[in-house]
Amino acid sequence: MDHTTMYRWVQRSAPELERRCRPHLKSTVDSWRVDETYIKVKKEWMYLYRAVDSQGYTLDFFFSPTRNAEAATCFFRKTFAASHTTEPRVINVDKNAAYPKAFAELKAEGHIPEHCELRQVKYLNNRIEQGHRFIKRLTKPGMGFFSFETARKTLQGYEIMNMLRKGQGQGIERGDVGGLVALVAKLFGIAA
């Protein structure tokens, strides 16, 4: 099979797989870890914002060409809108100055509950820093992407498959390949 065939499949199927899997994800816990990592697109660094809960389950992700308060705000809005996320008690972030600005703006608008706390402690984010490794392991051999859209769709596929592999799908445990195949077959209406 040619690599361009695989490329076309990923570009067409990854967004659809994410859309169909989202309603079948398990609920997360109320302690969030938020961070961003760098991904190369056309020899320029872009930013993949990611959030996990204290158990390591992925809350959401957001790919952005910028690393500023506006991008952080968009990411937080997307994460709060996800159906499987639980209202946070605490959000742990690193020392990036964009997070307090975005947090204050969303709290003032009423999107973040009053009791929620933002903690800027570098070492509390070790779990998400370790989570970035799976993305780096997949993107480094490819030496970057050639367009923002290609990167966004491919990363969508990587993230949703990793979420399912970690056991975030309802009725699927970590490492249950048979359950994962059955869920995807059910979602797409094909025989497993």
Write up this protein:
With 192 residues, this protein is α/β, with parallel strands linked by helices. The chain has one domain (3-188): Nucleotidyltransferase, domain 5. Helices cover 46% and strands 19% of the residues. It has 6 helices and 5 strands; from the N terminus they run H-E-E-E-H-E-H-E-H-H-H. The chain has helices at 3-21, 69-81, 98-109, 126-139, 148-165, 177-188; strands at residues 31-41, 44-53, 58-64, 90-93, 117-120. Strands 3-2-1-4-5 form a 5-stranded mixed sheet, sandwiched between helices. A hairpin with a 2-residue loop joins strand 1 and strand 2. Helix 1 (3-21) packs across helix 5 and helix 2 crosses helix 3. The longest helix is centred in the first third of the chain and has 19 residues, at 3-21. 28% of the residues are buried. The model has no long low-confidence stretch (mean pLDDT 89). Residues 19-182 form the Integrase catalytic domain. Keywords: DNA recombination, DNA-binding, Transposition. This is IS6 family transposase. Pfam families: DDE_Tnp_IS240. InterPro entries: DDE_dom, Integrase_cat-core, IS_Transposase, RNaseH-like_sf, Transpos_IS6.
Structure summary:
This protein has 192 residues and is of the alpha/beta class. The protein is built from six helices and five strands, in the order αβββαβαβααα.
Please work out how many helical segments DSSP would assign.
6
Approximately how much helix is present in the residues? 40-55%
Major β-sheet annotation = 5 strands, mixed
Q: Unreliable segments (pLDDT under 50, ≥5 consecutive)?
A: none
The backbone outline, from C-alpha atoms, is globular
Beta strand count: 5
Order of neighbouring strands in the sheet with most strands:
3-2-1-4-5
CATH fold naming: Nucleotidyltransferase, domain 5
Distance between the termini: 21 Å
Tell me the domain tally: 1
CATH architecture: 2-Layer Sandwich
Could you report the average pLDDT, rounded to the nearest whole number? 89
What fraction of residues sit in β-strands? Answer: 15-25%
Helix and strand composition category:
alpha/beta
CATH superfamily: Ribonuclease H-like superfamily/Ribonuclease H
Domain Integrase catalytic: 19-182
Keywords: DNA recombination, DNA-binding, Transposition
Organism: Ktedonobacter robiniae
Protein name: IS6 family transposase
